[in-house]
């Protein structure tokens, strides 16, 4: 929790009552639930129960009106995940206005890092996969960093890291996920509905106006949020952008008569649902890809899959760390004083955890077995990046406990 968040009044709770919401607000627990859901999905997808797992994931529910007849997996990806992005948008807005990123140079650094973390992986993936079937679009797969997984690994192995490190990683991941969504809108949107997009913009303006007028009733906000999501989804743009947009439009400064700002109240109520249900459910339905010996052998022969792995593991590290280093040395961005360069390297490694949007782009850019291999490559690369970052963070944590906290850069 940031300094700004700690200064906000928190809802009272009895000291004798176990608060499951507070338990889930600890990022370590959220990360464990997320990893458990991923492991279960991989286990089921590579077991005799794979047929049942895929049948449930692909079962379609919802009306066909406004393209809302989606599979269970798509509802988790497009619907539930929008709430997670809303919570991420709330936290990012709070940090930009009253938190760690309220300084311009501090705010610029994760933006520059995200841009570098998109360009370098995309360039590497394009160079390695050039000429292979599907490579003309698959270069976009490694551009995104998964917010939930990256923060989960950070919370599990780097709980000693200062708040500024988490804010940097969150901001970077949000920015490059937004960039990836722009890539999706440009490359993979068939028949963009301008009318629906305009409707989404109007609804966002209404939401902003209600915030400005200090309206608080959920009887207005819930239907408005649902309508915004439907408009964005119908427009052809990935629906999770609706969550980010509304989160960034939410008021974060509290009035004198308020115990907490709207952003703090919403974050407090929604974060346990996001960490304990929404993200794990998405991971459960997204991570179920075959990773047996035959699948791994096929990946070794697939240049696109190799390009995805190199782009995420190597490209993200070079792009994020390199652009951050240059930005600080040139005076464009400011590195948090509490975060050292070796810590920045670990955060750059975590940038290679490309799960949510990377899997989405794999689905959009490829088809059939090629898409399955690319998705398996995303999981392999994410696992490698997670393990490398975890090793650095754990080693760094042990050194700090022993009193060696100096920076060598």
Question: Would you write up a description of this structure?
Answer:
The protein has a single domain (26-400), classed as Na+/H+ antiporter like fold, CATH 1.20.1530.10. The model is unreliable at 1-18 (pLDDT under 50). Helix content is 71%, strand content 1%. The chain has 409 residues and is mostly helical. The radius of gyration is 21 Å and the shape is globular.
Condensed summary:
It is found in: Cell inner membrane; Cell membrane. InterPro entries: Na/H_antiporter_dom_sf (IPR023171), NhaA (IPR004670). The chain is mostly helical.
The overall number of domains is 1
- The assigned structural class equals mainly alpha
Sketch the major β-sheet: 2 strands, antiparallel
* Total beta strands: 2
Element-by-element helix/strand order: HHHHEEHHHHHHHHHHHHHH
By DSSP (H or I, 4+ residues per run), the number of helices equals 18
Q: Could you say which overall geometry the principal axes of the C-alpha atoms support?
A: globular
Strand order of the largest sheet: 1-2
**DSSP helix fraction:** over 70%
Distance between the termini: 28 Å
Family: Belongs to the NhaA Na(+)/H(+) (TC 2.A.33) antiporter family.
Function: Na(+)/H(+) antiporter that extrudes sodium in exchange for external protons.
Keywords: Antiport, Cell membrane, Ion transport, Membrane, Sodium, Sodium transport, Transmembrane, Transmembrane helix, Transport
Catalytic activity: Na(+)(in) + 2 H(+)(out) = Na(+)(out) + 2 H(+)(in)
